[in-house]
């Protein structure tokens, strides 16, 4: 199978993820969309690794997965704390970061 | 001079810097200790500065007591200091005035008696801060005068703004015409204005400093900031600057100095800063810090960019003339004593800049003497004005009248300070002002005549001030109760007045030091004095 | 002998320093110290004078070089003195009259608690004036020139609690500063022309310079002289200067300082001789002032202001004579010296009258005082006869010589100047007779003094302010005041005759000022006769107006000329309208402009940046999603830019 197709799939997944981040307000959905984008990037790395016959990309993908796991822990914790304090998981409610 | 001997110039600057740290470290309750410590340090600095003057050989090399150490080798920055006659005179002026400023400001920075009890006093230490900041400014000013490396100069020229900002913004007259809260607001406005003006000028200069390095790195084996190296390379033709490059670099430097000096129309920070700060700090601004600006014009603008200086001369002369007349006219129209002195200073800085750019030996010697004498005369006038203001708690001229009757010594010293400001012959500023005028007239007669009109305006603003504050009937109860000068205050003013008279009658010791330096500067810009129409007169004498 | 010259200046300078810094300890003895030092200076002057007489004409000048004052490349100013016959004349006049007036002031200022300071200022004045006449270069002369200005400022404003005195002092200094500007520019011109400003080289080489330059120098020197000597158009300060204590008016504003302008012109004779245009301006100024002062003097009711007008007028004579060149210099100086005697005497007499009349200055409230103050009456009378040029007295000789010289100017100019001087002589006789009659003759008018008329409240401001409404008891002054008056009266009577004995004075000055005999177009006896006739005419008219009718205590409204003469011929009003008001408007609008335009430009820039950052701030809305959009947008732009760069 032509590895380029994986790149198309990755692009599609990234676009879906990006759209999700931009248009959804629920923090959980935004979070999942971010994961989708991360995994799209992973897929690209692995696909290029295969295309070039070089293992660097796969190693990089493992790194990303580890970092993503850590990020999930921190991110979910923040979302839970946010939900507890505001009784809402909408990202627009947390708009204190402005001048 | 050998590099291995005692680093006298550095020591003169380091002593007040160390003194500043020590003063700041004095515990909060020991305010008196801090005051005496600061005074002792400033007197020690005066001794060192006197030593610099004594060690300086007027007939010797251009830069003496030089020290040179590698600093940031990658950028060719060296810690290079050395004094010529002009720098030696100005270092002496600085070291001379600081003890008087400290003694005059003895009670200007007490913790607020209405503060929140003893606890407030323990954390808030204004006295220590005030005197430490003054000493810090002194150290930086001395290094700026002595630096012969453009980068070193730039650093201290800019760093000076930090202690000055706090001195202006943090310590004002307690009594303010518009109430204490409004006073604090205006004070912080003045401090911010001072900082922004000078910072803007300084940043433009930074660009020019970098530009200068690029030019030297381009053409010389290694880039350098050394004044002497650049001057030598220019003289030998090793370093050629394109006309436009030179002009742009000149403008970058000149703008910074013109803000500091201050030259019309970049002057508006000075009346605010001098008006809002206490009298000793106002003296520090106009008599000491601003002199760095005019000094740097003489040393850096003329020394580094002779052709561009000649190119800019007509414009600078016109701006200087505007400063002279405009400053004097505004001084006539002021209702606030300190602002009046500030505008008078703007007029006087016009004279200094006029003298520098007349490019004659009389003009430049006069300008250098003017820097020194203006420092002393303004200190005398402003400090007495400060004593007056502290008695009545008002800066407005209209709140005074008839002081002469109740406090004759105060009025007498005020009058002498005023007469020095209007350059009465017999007092020191006359010598310098006349030299500037002669030097200007011999090259630009019309400019000389316009500037001479400044002496009439000076008489008007000084005598109006004197008449409105000191003469007339005593019709205000606050005035009737006013005490005459106290011993401490007299001890501040009397030596300044004695110096004004002495240097007015016998300025030779100073001219002997200054003259050779001015000759060097004139040879930098390749100018010679205009010849008299009848050259044979000297022969027949 | 040379080294004594410095002592001439040093003695009074020491006195000034000691008296002004000495504090109240010296209150009891200070006036004697001041007087003694002035007298010391006079004795030294006399010693030098007799020493000078022992030498022959050209060798009489002495020089003393003290030290190099301002040595700068190409610019050498020295503190050096030169004592020649001209300076000697002034030294004797200054120290002589000065010592007498010190003596007089001991009595006059007896009740003033600040008497010590008064003597300090007087000594300061003497030192500055001696420096002025002894300097051997123009820059040092300038020091003395402004020094006397300072002393005059301090002394006019001596009673500082009176606002009018403080204002008058300030006015005198500022008007003088305008003149000083002229002196400065003259020195600049000398420096650029000759490379020096010492008397010797400048005056010896004056004829080698271009006439245009010399005319410019001459006019600038004249401006200086106008300021100091109260000549039109800078005369306005002299009348107000009468706010000072009377000894000051006598010493500074009559006998010595105001003649400094004449000294300057005479000293710079070589420059004026080579610049005929400048000379013409000088004689014009002199002629205008001599009539101006005389007219003002005729209208004033304040005895001191009447005498001030007279001073102006008499100095006009001197300036006119000095402008005539070698035929006039010696006469100008001779009139200066005789004028020094009789005018100082007149002022001291006026002071004595005021002393006895509770400081009343309005002559309309005097009258018949000769019975109460016989010594004052006699000495004042002798001074009066001298000033109007009564034959045989000092003024007759010196004034007559100037009138002769004026006629000798040649052509139309000679006739005009001669006519002006003759008319001036008549006016002098008129106003002085008026003063004499109003003060010493007629009925006493000080009793039952009416309240000041509301119609003319400005007639006698000082009397109103003094607040003394007690009835005066005229009495003769103490001996310390009468002795100086008697000595000066002797001078007024005999000096002129003595000077003219075989043209002694002219020969004495000749080596310095050069001299040519005037050759008037009409015989000298005719001129003398005309002068005497004019004088008698003036006396007659005044007698008819004031002695034969009772004098009203409140001045009548008078004709337009009288009213404007009372206001100094509207010169003050002109100055006020043009310079004072104009200046005030200018400074006020500049203060406004500085705040709005210059400062406004800067503050405006600051405000613009502030506004811009306010707009930019809105982008920071706190919504994470909009930050994400900008991140994506930024990333897209970056990628697009990279691709574009690749493609190119």
UniProtKB/TrEMBL annotation, chain A:
Q: Which source organism? A: Streptomyces chumphonensis
Going by the entry's taxonomy, the superkingdom of the source organism is recorded as Bacteria
Q: Name one GO molecular function term.
A: quinone binding
Q: Does the keyword NAD apply?
A: yes
Q: What is its EC number?
A: 7.1.1.-
Q: Which EC class does it fall in?
A: translocase
Q: Mainly localized where?
A: membrane
Q: What is this protein called?
A: NADH-quinone oxidoreductase subunit K
Entry-linked InterPro entries: NADH_UbQ_OxRdtase_chain4L/K (IPR001133), NUOK/Mnh_C1-like (IPR039428)
Listed PANTHER family = NADH DEHYDROGENASE SUBUNIT 4L-RELATED (PTHR11434:SF21), NADH-UBIQUINONE OXIDOREDUCTASE SUBUNIT ND4L (PTHR11434)
The record describes its membrane topology as: Multi-pass membrane protein
Q: Does the keyword Magnesium apply?
A: no
TrEMBL record, chain C:
| Keywords (A to Z) from UniProt | Membrane, Transmembrane, Transmembrane helix
Q: Which organism is it from?
A: Streptomyces chumphonensis
This protein's record includes keyword Membrane:
yes
Q: Which residues form the NADH-Ubiquinone oxidoreductase (complex I) chain 5 N-terminal domain?
A: 69-119
Q: Name one GO cellular component term.
A: membrane
Q: GO biological process annotations for this chain's record?
A: ATP synthesis coupled electron transport; electron transport coupled proton transport
Locations listed in the record: Endomembrane system; Membrane
Full protein name: NADH-quinone oxidoreductase subunit L
What Gene Ontology molecular-function terms does this entry list? NADH dehydrogenase (ubiquinone) activity; NADH dehydrogenase activity
**Pfam family name, one:** Proton_antipo_N
Q: Where is the composition biased (Basic and acidic residues)?
A: 466-478
| Stretch list, region Disordered | 449-478
The membrane-spanning stretches of this chain are 31-54, 89-106, 118-135, 181-203, 209-227, 248-266, 278-299, 372-392, 412-432, 483-502, 522-544, 626-645
Q: How does it sit in the membrane?
A: Multi-pass membrane protein
- Domain annotation NADH:quinone oxidoreductase/Mrp antiporter transmembrane: ranges: 135-421
């Amino acid at each position: 199978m032509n590895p380029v197709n994986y790149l198309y799939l990755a692009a599609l997944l990234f676009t879906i993820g990006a759209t999700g981040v931009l248009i959804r307000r629920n923090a959980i959905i935004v979070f999942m969309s971010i994961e989708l984008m991360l995994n799209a990037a992973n897929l690209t790395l692995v696909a290029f690794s295969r295309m070039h016959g070089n293992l660097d990309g796969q190693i990089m993908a493992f790194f990303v997965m580890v970092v993503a796991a850590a990020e999930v822990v921190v991110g979910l914790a923040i979302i839970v704390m946010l939900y507890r304090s505001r009784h809402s998981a909408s990202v627009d409610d947390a708009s204190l970061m402005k001048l | 001079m050998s590099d291995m001997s005692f680093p006298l110039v550095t020591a003169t600057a380091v002593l007040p810097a160390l003194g500043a740290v020590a003063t700041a470290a004095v515990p909060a309750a020991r305010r008196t200790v801090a005051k005496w410590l600061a005074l002792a340090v400033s007197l020690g600095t005066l001794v060192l500065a006197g030593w610099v003057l004594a060690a300086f050989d007027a007939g010797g090399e251009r830069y003496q007591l030089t020290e040179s150490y590698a600093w940031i080798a990658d950028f060719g920055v060296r810690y290079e200091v050395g004094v010529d006659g002009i720098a030696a005179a100005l270092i002496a002026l600085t070291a001379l005035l600081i003890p008087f400023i400290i003694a005059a400001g003895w009670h200007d920075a007490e913790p607020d008696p209405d503060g929140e009890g003893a606890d407030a006093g323990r954390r808030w230490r204004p006295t220590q801060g005030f005197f430490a900041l003054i000493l810090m400014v002194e150290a930086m000013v001395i290094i700026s005068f002595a630096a012969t490396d453009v980068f070193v100069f730039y650093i201290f020229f800019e760093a000076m703004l930090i202690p000055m900002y706090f001195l202006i913004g943090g310590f004002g007259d307690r009594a303010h015409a518009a109430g204490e809260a409004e006073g604090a607001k205006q004070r912080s406005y003045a401090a911010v204005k001072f900082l922004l003006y000078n910072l803007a000028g300084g940043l433009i200069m930074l660009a020019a400093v970098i530009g200068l390095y690029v030019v030297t790195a381009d053409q010389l084996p290694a880039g350098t900031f050394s004044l002497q190296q650049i001057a030598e390379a220019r003289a030998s033709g090793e370093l050629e600057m394109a006309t436009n490059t030179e002009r742009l670099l000149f403008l970058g430097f000149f703008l910074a100095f013109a803000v500091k000096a201050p030259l019309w129309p970049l002057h508006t920070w000075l009346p605010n800063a001098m008006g809002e700060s206490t009298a000793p700090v106002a003296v520090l601004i106009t008599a000491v810090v601003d002199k760095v600006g005019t000094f740097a014009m003489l040393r850096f603008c003329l020394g580094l960019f002779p052709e561009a200086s000649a190119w800019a001369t007509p414009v600078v002369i016109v701006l200087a003339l505007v400063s002279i007349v405009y400053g004097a006219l505004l001084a006539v129209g002021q209702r606030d004593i300190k602002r009046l002195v500030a505008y008078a200073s703007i007029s006087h800085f016009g004279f200094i800049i006029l003298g520098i750019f007349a490019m004659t030996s009389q003009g430049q010697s006069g300008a250098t003497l003017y820097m020194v004498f203006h420092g002393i005369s303004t200190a005398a006038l402003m400090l007495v004005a400060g004593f007056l203001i502290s008695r009545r708690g008002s800066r407005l001229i209209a709140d005074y009248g008839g002081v002469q009757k109740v406090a004759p010594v105060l009025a007498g010293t005020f009058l002498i300070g005023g007469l020095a400001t209007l350059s009465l012959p017999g007092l020191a500023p006359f010598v310098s002002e006349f030299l500037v005028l002669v030097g200007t007239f011999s090259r630009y007669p019309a400019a000389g005549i316009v500037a001479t009109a400044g002496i009439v305006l000076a008489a008007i603003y000084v005598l109006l001030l004197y008449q409105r504050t000191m003469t007339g009937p005593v019709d205000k109860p606050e005035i009737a109760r006013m005490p005459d000068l106290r011993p401490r205050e007299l001890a501040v003013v009397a030596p300044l007045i004695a110096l004004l008279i002495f240097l007015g009658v016998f300025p030779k010791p100073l001219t002997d030091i200054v003259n050779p330096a001015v000759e060097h500067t004139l040879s930098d810009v390749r100018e010679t004095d205009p010849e008299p129409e009848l050259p044979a007169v000297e022969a027949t004498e | 002998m040379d080294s004594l010259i410095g002592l001439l200046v040093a003695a009074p300078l020491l006195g000034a320093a000691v008296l002004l810094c000495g504090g109240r300890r010296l209150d009891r003895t200070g006036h004697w110290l001041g007087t003694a030092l002035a007298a010391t200076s006079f004795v030294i002057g006399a010693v030098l004078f007799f020493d000078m007489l022992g030498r022959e004409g050209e060798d009489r000048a002495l020089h003393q070089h003290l030290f190099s004052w301002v040595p700068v490349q190409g610019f050498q100013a020295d503190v050096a003195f030169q004592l020649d016959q001209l300076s000697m004349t002034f030294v004797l006049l200054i120290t002589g009259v000065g010592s007498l007036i010190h003596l007089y002031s001991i009595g006059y200022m007896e009740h003033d608690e600040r008497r010590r300071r008064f003597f300090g200022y007087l000594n300061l004045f003497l030192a500055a004036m001696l420096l002025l006449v002894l300097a051997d270069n123009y820059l040092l002369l300038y020091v003395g020139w402004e020094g006397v200005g300072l002393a005059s400022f301090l002394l006019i404003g001596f009673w500082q609690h009176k606002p009018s005195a403080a204002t008058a002092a300030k006015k005198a200094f500022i008007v003088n500063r305008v003149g000083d500007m002229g002196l400065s520019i003259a020195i600049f011109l000398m420096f650029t022309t000759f490379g020096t400003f010492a008397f010797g080289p400048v005056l010896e080489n004056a004829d080698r310079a271009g006439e245009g330059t010399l005319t410019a120098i001459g006019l600038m020197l004249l401006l200086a002289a106008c300021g100091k000597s109260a000549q039109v158009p800078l005369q306005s300060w002299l009348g107000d200067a009468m706010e000072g204590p009377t000894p000051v008016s006598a010493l500074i504003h009559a006998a010595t300082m105001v003649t400094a302008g004449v000294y300057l012109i005479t000293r710079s004779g070589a420059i004026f001789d080579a610049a005929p245009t400048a000379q013409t301006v000088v004689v014009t100024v002199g002629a205008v002032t001599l009539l101006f002062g005389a007219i003002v003097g005729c209208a004033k009711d304040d005895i001191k202001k009447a005498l001030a007008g007279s001073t102006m007028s008499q100095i006009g004579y001197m300036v006119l004579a000095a402008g005539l060149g070698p035929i006039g210099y010696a006469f100008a100086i001779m009139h200066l010296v005789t004028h020094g005697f009789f005018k100082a005497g007149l002022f001291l007499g006026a002071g004595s009258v005021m002393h006895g009349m509770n400081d009343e200055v309005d002559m309309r409230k005097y009258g018949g005082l000769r019975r109460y103050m016989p010594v004052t009456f006699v000495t004042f009378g002798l001074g009066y006869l001298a000033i109007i040029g009564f034959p045989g007295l000092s003024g007759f000789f010196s004034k007559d010589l100037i009138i002769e010289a004026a006629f000798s100017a040649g052509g139309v100019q000679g006739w005009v100047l001669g006519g002006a001087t003759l008319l001036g002589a008549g006016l002098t006789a008129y106003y002085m007779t008026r003063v004499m009659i109003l003060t010493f003759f007629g009925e006493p008018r000080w009793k039952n003094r009416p309240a000041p008329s509301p119609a003319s409240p400005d007639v006698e401001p000082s009397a109103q302010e003094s607040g003394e409404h007690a009835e005066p008891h005229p009495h003769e002054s103490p001996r310390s005041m009468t002795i100086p008056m008697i000595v000066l009266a002797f001078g007024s009577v005999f000096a002129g005759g003595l000077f003219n004995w075989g043209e002694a004075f002219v020969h004495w000055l000749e080596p310095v000022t050069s001299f040519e005999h005037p050759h008037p177009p009409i015989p000298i006896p005719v001129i003398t006769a005309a002068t005497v006739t004019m004088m008698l005419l003036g006396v007659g008219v005044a007698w008819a107006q004031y002695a034969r009718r009772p004098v009203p205590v409140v001045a009548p409204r008078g004709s337009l000329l009288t009213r404007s003469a009372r206001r100094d011929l509207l010169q003050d009003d002109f100055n006020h309208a043009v310079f004072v008001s104009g200046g005030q408007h200018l400074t006020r609008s500049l203060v406004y402009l500085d705040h709005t335009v210059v400062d406004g430009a800067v503050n405006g820039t600051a405000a613009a940046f502030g506004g811009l950052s306010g707009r930019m701030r809105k982008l920071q809305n706190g919504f994470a999603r909009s930050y994400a959009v900008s991140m994506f947008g930024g990333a897209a732009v970056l990628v697009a830019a990279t691709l574009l760069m690749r493609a190119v």
